[in-house]
């Protein structure tokens, strides 16, 4: 028999396990904050830009559209060349970096807008000054070597990366991590709440007998706590005492009447 659950039952489960769900969410946020502020190493970015533009002769007064299209198409090739060992090995050697060219490649990001002749070289590093040096040196080495590799002179450095005071790390982002942890914590808490409810097969009310055993309820034995028993006994004694006093007064009046 297929079981169904109503919105009322869902609300009852959430209300019943409210503190479990809340504690799970709070624990997730606390862990995310702890990792973001104390364990994850901040990383910084530095960006250098260069422009791919074929130099024009003095006789040419206007740019040739075909030349611009060629420059844009060359950018895809340049993006591969700039991340090749031929470039990065020289960068590692020149800056005396304690890392391999392959490791340096993973920290490089080459991007350009569609149909744009401007290419951005972004380096991510745990030190902002080092990131700027690597970005600038990479573009400089590329600018020198591309003339030999492709026999062209159409690369010009547009802007260099400049270290700034009190740089803002790009990673980690504590507030974003905590927000994600809050959502995940709530989801996990709700999941645990419904799992516990599903695994709980104890009978707590007469409705559970009808639903799980399919038997009609003939009677209910109410649970009476010890305090209630004491209060009931005291009330019964008080009632009995009042009754006896009433009877005593009645007998006294009867005697007086006689």
UniProtKB/TrEMBL annotation:
Keywords: Cell membrane, Membrane, Transmembrane, Transmembrane helix. Residues 238-258 are annotated as: Disordered. Residues 244-258 have a biased composition (Basic and acidic residues). InterPro entries: Bact_polysacc_biosynth/exp (IPR050445), GNVR (IPR032807), LPS_length_determ_N (IPR003856). Residues 144-195 form the Tyrosine-protein kinase G-rich domain. Its main location: membrane. The chain crosses the membrane at residues 18-40, 175-199. One of its GO terms (cellular component) is plasma membrane. Residues 3-95 form the Polysaccharide chain length determinant N-terminal domain. One of its GO terms (molecular function) is protein tyrosine kinase activity. It is found in: Cell membrane. It is a multi-pass membrane protein. Belongs to the CpsC/CapA family. This is Capsular polysaccharide biosynthesis protein. It comes from Thalassobacillus cyri.
